[in-house]
Design a protein that fits this description.
The chain is α/β, with parallel strands linked by helices. It has a domain at about 5-145 and about 170-200 and about 245-260: NAD(P)-binding Rossmann-like Domain (Rossmann fold, 3-Layer(aba) Sandwich). The protein is about 40% helix and about 15% strand. The protein is built from eleven helices and twelve strands. Strands 2-1-3-4-6-10 form a six-stranded parallel beta sheet, sandwiched between helices. The protein has a two-stranded parallel ribbon with strand order 5-12. The two termini are about 35 Å apart.
Length: about 270
C-alpha cells in the first residue's frame, strides 16, 4: 500500500511517515497536474494541510488559515478525482461543535464562529472527492515531541503551569499513538464518513492541569487569566477558552479500541 501526504512535515505528518514506509509527499505549492503525477500508484491520500491554528488571527492570517485548508483541499480533490486513488482521509477539527454541549458524530448543530465556519467549509470541499472518504475531526493531539503538550511542558516543568480561567472548560484529547492507530484502522477497514478523533473520556482543564503536574511532580498554582490569552492570541484565544465535550461514539461503535483513553495513562505513556 502506498500513501500520499499533505502537511507531511507537521507533528502528525512526521509520525505518519514513520508509520507508513511507502509514501510520497504532496507540497502545498504543487499544481493539480503535478499532484496527479504524484498520485500514480497511490492507494490512500491523507490530507493534513493547514497553517497552525494557535496564532493571532489577524485579517491577513485568517486568509492564510482559509487558503491553507480550503484551497489546498480543493486542489487535492480535483487531482484525486482524476486519479486511481481508492481512499481519501481528510483532517478536520472538533472546533466545529458548539460550546458547553455534549457532542458526538451525530451532532448536527454547529457553532457559529470563525473556527467552526472554517472547519465546515474544509469538510465540504473534502466531501467532493469521488472516492471512499473519511473525515477525522481532531481533538487536542497529545505528544511529547510536538503539538500543544510540547508547548506546555517548559512552563509546567518550571513549576509555572496552572489552570486556564476557572479550569472548568472541557478538553477532548487523543494520544498521538491512538491517532496513528486510528489511521491504520480506517484504512484497513475501509471506513468512510466522519469520526471524532478524540478519547471517550474528555476532561476539564483543571483535571488536565493537575494530572500533568502530578506526572511531572511539579506544582500547578499559577492560573492563566483571560486577558493574558486575549493579549497574546486575540480571537484565537477561543481555541484555549472554549469548552468542547466531544465523544467518539461512531468510532467506538465501529470497533476501534483506544490504548490510552484516560488522561493519566496517556501522559505517563508520553512523558515517562
Amino acid at each position: 500500500m502506498k500513501i500520499a501526504l499533505t502537511g507531511a512535515n507537521g507533528f502528525v505528518g512526521n509520525k505518519l511517515k514513520n508509520a507508513f514506509n511507502d509514501y510520497i509527499v504532496i507540497d502545498r505549492d504543487d499544481t493539480v497536474d503535478q499532484i496527479i503525477n504524484k498520485l500514480i500508484n497511490v492507494d490512500v491520500v491523507i490530507n493534513l494541510a493547514g497553517a497552525p491554528i494557535l496564532k493571532k488571527w489577524t485579517t491577513k492570517y485568517k486568509k492564510v488559515l482559509f487558503n491553507s485548508r480550503i484551497e489546498t483541499t480543493k486542489k487535492l480533490v480535483k487531482a484525486i478525482n482524476k486519479s486511481k486513488v481508492k481512499h481519501f482521509i481528510s483532517t478536520s477539527a472538533i472546533g466545529i461543535y458548539p460550546n458547553n454541549v455534549v457532542c458526538d458524530e451525530y451532532t448536527l448543530n454547529y457553532e457559529n464562529d470563525f473556527l467552526s465556519n472554517l472547519v465546515e467549509n474544509w469538510e465540504k470541499e473534502a466531501k467532493k472527492a469521488n472516492v471512499l472518504t473519511t473525515i477525522l475531526r481532531f481533538g487536542i493531539v497529545l505528544g511529547a515531541d510536538g503539538g500543544a503538550l510540547k508547548q506546555m511542558l517548559l512552563p509546567f516543568k518550571l513549576g509555572l503551569g496552572g489552570i486556564i480561567l476557572n479550569g472548568q472548560m472541557k478538553m477532548s484529547f487523543i494520544d498521538i499513538d491512538d491517532l496513528i492507530n486510528l489511521y491504520h484502522f480506517v484504512i484497513k477497514n475501509h471506513k468512510d464518513g466522519v469520526y471524532n478523533a478524540c478519547s471517550p473520556h474528555p476532561i476539564t482543564n483543571y483535571e488536565f492541569t493537575k494530572t500533568l503536574g502530578k506526572v511531572l511532580n511539579r506544582p500547578t498554582i499559577f492560573p492563566l487569566p483571560k486577558f493574558i490569552l486575549e493579549l497574546v492570541y486575540a480571537e484565537a484565544s477561543t481555541v484555549l477558552i472554549d469548552s468542547k465535550e466531544v465523544y467518539p461514539k461512531r468510532l467506538e461503535n465501529s470497533g476501534f479500541t483506544f490504548k490510552y483513553p484516560k488522561i493519566e495513562n496517556s501522559l505517563i505513556h508520553l512523558l515517562k
